[in-house]
């Protein structure tokens, strides 16, 4: 307990008794009686041979239970194991290489490190750091090409994470880093540690080819990343049809079925090769394992096919479509839960372009806006 606050009252013996109060603050001064604590108590680290001088090997973590002025900053010193000065230790507790290590010269070093706090008198503690020197990388990283589809309302893309690069390396201790060509950073970013791709706001309609690479420190491998951006027209929402799938997650649909189903769907509903199929959004149905996919078909002339026409085409081709994935229902009007005469209802769709859903797999990622279906009985 660092302090107490007491209220003391003095009362006299008169009639009536009079009194007054005063606050007494008692501060407990800290004595430097706690040594620094390393977490963990001892360390093991690795460094590959032929890494450049100054390579970071390890970050020491030290805490102190004393008050701030008796704790950090800490002073770090390598007491033993560094007689040839192969290592340096900076004031922040980062252990770095001071030479270029060779696996054939030595495979292991054991350092005794001391941490000293800032109190008076100073308290110290020790830890042991085992550093293993391993052979340099012999395997190149391998990465899977990534294709990303982004659907957004006209000029209203808010930006966000749109996918993740999946890369591996057979060298056990390799740490992979990801980079993006500098001239593309005005539109996209890549997290250097985990390979997540971030798109900035305001992407235009079109196709983007990103120059991304992954490196293990020795080998650098390019990765094919293609981003397709499609901007929705308001007219599309008025001519959408919903296909509801049974027992499929969004990620499984995107990764396993979307390409094949899109191809089969085009053959089923397109009257001319020049017509365009637009997948607007996919979204799980709350409280079930079902999945809704919204789509519209644009004629070569520029207009859109009416939902009733598309539903007729879908009904005729349903058996072929279900060769790809099981369909639960084909919806244009959804009167579920409404007591409408002869089940006549009017449906409208609204898109929340600032609430994006990203369904990402190793090879393909689909980013689309969340949609809401509003239904009311017709007079």
Short description:
Residues 4-38, 39-143, 154-245 form the Cadherin domain. The chain is mainly beta and 379 residues long. The protein has 4 helices and 26 strands.
Description:
This is FAT3 protein. One of its GO terms (biological process) is homophilic cell adhesion via plasma membrane adhesion molecules. There is one protein chain. By secondary structure, the protein is mainly beta. The protein has 3 domains: 37-134, Immunoglobulin-like (Sandwich); 142-226, Sandwich (Immunoglobulin-like), CATH 2.60.40.60; 232-378, Alpha-Beta Plaits (2-Layer Sandwich). Helices cover 10% and strands 46% of the residues. The chain contains 4 helices and 26 strands. It has helices at 234-237, 250-269, 307-316, 318-321, and strands at 3-11, 19-27, 37-38, 43-48, 56-59, 62-63, 75-80, 87-89, 94-97, 108-116, 124-134, 142-143, 146-153, 160-164, 167-168, 177-180, 188-190, 196-199, 206-215, 220-232, 241-245, 276-284, 291-298, 327-331, 345-360, 364-377. A 6-stranded mixed β-sheet has the order 16-19-20-13-26-25. The chain has a 4-stranded mixed β-sheet with strand order 4-11-10-7, with no helix packed on it. The protein has a 4-stranded antiparallel β-sheet with strand order 22-23-21-24, covered by helices on one side. Strand 19 (206-215) and strand 20 form a beta hairpin. The longest helix has 20 residues, at 250-269. The radius of gyration is 33 Å and the shape is flat. The mean pLDDT is 90.
Shape: flat
Q: What is the average of the pLDDT values?
A: 90
CATH class of the largest domain: Alpha Beta
Helix-strand pattern, N to C?
EEEEEEEEEEEEEEEEEEEEHEHEEHHEEE
For the record, the count of structural domains works out to 3
> Within the largest sheet, what's the order of strands?
16-19-20-13-26-25
């Amino acid at each position: 307990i660092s302090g107490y606050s007491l209220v003391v009252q003095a009362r006299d013996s008169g009639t009536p008794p009079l009194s007054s109060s005063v606050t007494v603050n008692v501060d407990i001064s800290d004595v430097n009686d706690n040594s620094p604590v390393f977490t963990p108590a001892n360390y093991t680290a690795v460094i590959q041979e032929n890494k450049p001088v100054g390579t970071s090997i390890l970050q020491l973590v030290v805490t102190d239970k004393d008050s701030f002025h008796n704790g950090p900053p800490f002073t770090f010193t390598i007491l033993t194991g560094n007689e040839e000065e192969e290592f340096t230790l900076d004031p922040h507790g980062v252990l770095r290489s001071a030479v270029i290590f060779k696996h054939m010269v030595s495979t292991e070093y054991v350092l005794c490190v001391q941490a000293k706090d800032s109190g008076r008198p100073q308290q110290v503690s020790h830890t042991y750091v085992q550093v293993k020197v391993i052979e340099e990388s012999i395997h190149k990283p391998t990465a899977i090409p990534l294709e990303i589809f982004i659907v957004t309302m006209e000029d209203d893309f808010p930006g966000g994470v749109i996918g993740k690069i999946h890369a591996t390396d057979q060298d056990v201790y390799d740490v992979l880093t990801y980079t993006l060509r500098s001239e593309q950073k005005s539109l996209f970013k890549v997290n250097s540690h985990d390979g997540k791709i971030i798109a900035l706001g305001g992407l235009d309609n079109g196709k983007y080819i990103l120059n991304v690479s992954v490196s293990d420190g020795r080998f650098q491998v390019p990765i094919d990343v293609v981003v397709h951006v499609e901007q929705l027209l308001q007219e599309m929402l008025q001519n959408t049809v919903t296909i509801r799938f049974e027992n499929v997650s969004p990620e499984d649909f995107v990764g396993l079925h979307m390409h094949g189903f899109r191809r089969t769907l085009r053959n089923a509903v397109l009257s001319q090769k020049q017509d365009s199929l637009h997948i607007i959004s996919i979204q799980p149905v709350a409280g079930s394992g079902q999945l809704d996919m919204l789509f519209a078909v644009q004629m070569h002339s520029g207009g859109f096919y009416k939902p009733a026409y598309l539903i007729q085409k879908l009904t005729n081709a349903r058996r072929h479509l279900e060769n790809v994935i099981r369909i639960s229902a084909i919806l244009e009007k959804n009167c579920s839960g409404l007591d409408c005469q002869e089940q006549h209802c009017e449906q409208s769709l609204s898109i929340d372009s600032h609430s994006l859903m990203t369904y990402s797999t190793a090879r393909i990622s689909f980013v689309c806006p969340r949609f809401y279906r509003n239904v009311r009985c017709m007079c």
